[in-house]
Amino acid sequence: MIEFKGASVIAPDTGVTILEPTTLTLTERHVSIVGANGGGKSTLVRLINGLIPPTTGSIEVDGLDVAKHGAEVRRRVGFLFTDPSAQLIMPTAVEDVMLSLRRSIKNKDARTRAALDALEEIGLGDRADVSVSALSGGQRQLLAMAGVLAVTPTTLIADEPTTLLDLRWRAHVGSLLRSLPVQLIECTHDLDSASRAERTLVVDSGNVVFDGAPAESIKFYRDLMFGRTTRADSQ
């Protein structure tokens, strides 16, 4: 369970409010978050595992305050970035997954076996020794996912994970994400993917302006973007 308790974010250098005080409880297995670029979606989800600290309020994951128990929270909450290059560091696929396992599996042979198993499970078993730079965009996103999932998080945050992918890879990665046995918090511009969630939040100008069933939330979002409604209409 993820709880926001009056959590806000104010940019320290400019004093601009990026996220207004937000109170939410997220218990659903799949929550999608939609909104325009710059509206606050990424800020909202980055609070969950401490990538961004709250200016006011707090966030708890399974009763653990993120600010006080950051390391434990990050063991429970994995994060998948839009661009996999942001989290792929090592030269080859197997080495990159092994890096994720360095704290949980000390023995190198055991760590290698676990990394190979993780690659096989994600569909990259035949790419273990391939250079990361030689992988396609979709394969790199799968590799980033393998590294995150190898440490067995209970929650996965996916911040626009298919934005840089072509249609075929977008469908494949999206389907794989939805099949995972974890709580999925997904920021996305893909409204088809968003519609498959159990609950959808609409974020605009630093506020959660609508929170409801996917069909209702997506309709509100479309109307908001095309000027057919206003944020006040969600009240």
Q: Summed up, what is this model?
A:
This protein has 235 residues and is of the alpha/beta class.
Task: Write structural notes for this entry.
- Helix 3 (93-100) crosses helix 4, helix 3 packs parallel to helix 5 and helix 4 crosses helix 5.
- The protein has helices at 41-46, 70-76, 93-100, 108-122, 137-149, 167-179, 191-194, 214-225; strands at 2-10, 17-26, 30-34, 56-61, 64-65, 77-80, 155-159, 183-187, 199-204, 207-212.
- It is α/β, with parallel strands linked by helices.
- Helices cover 33% and strands 25% of the residues.
- 41% of the residues are buried.
- The strands form two sheets. A six-stranded mixed sheet has the order 6-7-8-3-9-10.
- The model has no long low-confidence stretch (mean pLDDT 94).
- The chain has a single domain (2-86, 155-234), classed as Rossmann fold.
